[in-house]
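A reminder from the course coordinator: this example appears on the midterm review sheet, so study it carefully.

Given structure:
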């Protein structure tokens, strides 16, 4: 494929420069992080034969949320920014609750 053909093909997706291509790849990587959170949750639940939300779910949620927030800011989508911002608050709060609980349980087990 020639350079002209490549950019004509990319142009059909609204991608007209290397910078835009980078941001599309970045946005897709963020979406992949969101996919991974569901994947790890599914595997953990299948192994235990009950619904489980592992710590990795929240980390993939946070990573994907941050990446998609950055992408949303780049494309200047207020709706996307507000949606991701709300999600980020939930992911951070869940991680805080998990680590506070672990600290409390760990402290209670000390003599």
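Designed residues:
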């Amino acid at each position: 494929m020639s350079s002209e053909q490549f950019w004509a093909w990319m142009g059909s997706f609204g991608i007209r420069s290397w910078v835009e291509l980078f941001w599309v790849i970045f946005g897709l990587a963020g979406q992949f992080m969101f996919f991974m959170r569901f994947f790890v949750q599914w595997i953990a639940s299948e192994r235990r034969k009950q619904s489980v939300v592992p710590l990795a779910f929240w980390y993939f949620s946070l990573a994907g949320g941050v990446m998609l927030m950055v992408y949303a800011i780049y494309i200047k989508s207020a709706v996307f920014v507000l949606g991701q911002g709300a999600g980020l608050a939930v992911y951070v709060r869940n991680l805080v609750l998990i680590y506070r609980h672990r600290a409390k349980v760990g402290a209670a087990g000390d003599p």
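Residues 3-109 form one domain. The chain has one domain: 3-109.
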